[in-house]
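G., the chain you wanted modeled:
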Amino acid sequence: MDRCTRGIVLATYPPHLSHGTKELSVSMATLAPQTESSNGYHPLPVYQNSPTFQMALHQLHSVTEVIDIDPGVLERLCYPKRAMVVSMPVRMDDGRTQVFFGYRVQHSLTSGPSKGGLRYHPSVDLGEVAALAMWMSWKCGIMNLPFGGAKGGIACDPAQLSRGELERLTRRFTEEVLSIIGPRMDVMAPDLGTDEQTMAWIMDTYSMKIGYACPEIVTGKPIELGGCIGRREATGRGVTYCILEALKEVGLEPGQATAVVQGFGNVGGVACQELAARGVKILGIGDRFGAIHNPRGIDVAALQKHVAAGKLVRDFPGAEPIDPAAMLTLPCTILLPAALERVITRQNANQLRCRILAEGANGPTTPEADAILADSDIFIIPDVICNAGGVTVSYFEWVQDLQQLMWSEEMVNQKLQELMLRAFHQVCHVARTRQLTMRTAALSLGVEKVAKEKQRRGLYP
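Predicted structure as tokens:
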């Protein structure tokens, strides 16, 4: 049975999965809470140096000012239910052994199994993963999904690893976290730097361990292995549905709109394609390697072929290079950050020249930037609703795998649009009737649902 101490798991495997894995030991002195901070919370030292985790805590605290929440429940919501840190020695192609560090954080298990992506990125750390897991709890609450929030990550640069190295790394990570994952415990999905092949390796490793095929252990996997049609495009499509509704809110037609998109992966790339198909002119696109700009509009289909050929966005001949930071401040109707956290800050918030800020990434806007934007006329679609399409279709995939009954793509897209629009209009209604920002309205709905469920279940023992 797992032994947990204030959010850090000291993992021992159950008998059927026991294989002598190492325990992560953390002293009680390390885990002791700090003295009371100004907002009343006691961040653990293991998280305190993470600006992303502190940002998530700040958002949670701001919501408590507009909803009624039991203090004991609030204390529980401030910390992850479980966090595992693992070291993974991997045999590299040149014969040497390299050790990587991985994380899996389960913020809440109250509503059902925890759900959240697995990302591969050099800057991944425990605080970032814990914040993302917390946001996933609120996201599932807003969408009324039977999941708690989770997130995982491995500190690595997938672009520098061969396919064989990525496979060995993924399988070793799966082996190390076997004690805390399962179709009714914790279900992973792709995220930054991972894809459906990553999920296939996780499914195979888990299935080999338990002795039978278990497609419901992950979502976002290949269709041939029980994946859901439309899952890869789901987050980008969900973003698009929210943007189209936001355009109605501000009185504009898609054909009158322009967009700047940071990120050209599963979220940004799909959103560009969907928006362009509806008449939105894409003025700027950027990724981790650079950015491009064309005031006449970027040919998204041509750019997709360019990238599919292994070339970089910044080298696309149909547009001019632009500084990635400057791209964010281009005049446009829609600004869509769809890459990393904390890119809209107090340094650039008052320079934004968009009408709609659609947060396709998780946590792209800092609290300081939020305060600045609150005094502007920018319509913000907060991340916990804007990018919820991915976890929503992951839910569809999980249900299909459990039932062994697959849906058509038409049904998937229809249900996705139905749930996204319902949640969007619910957030808008709360924001208008209670005079709240869109972010506070969205977070209040998510936090309140999880808090009520914890209150109803009580505290065991």
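The chain has two domains: 3-227, 232-386.

Shout if anything looks off.
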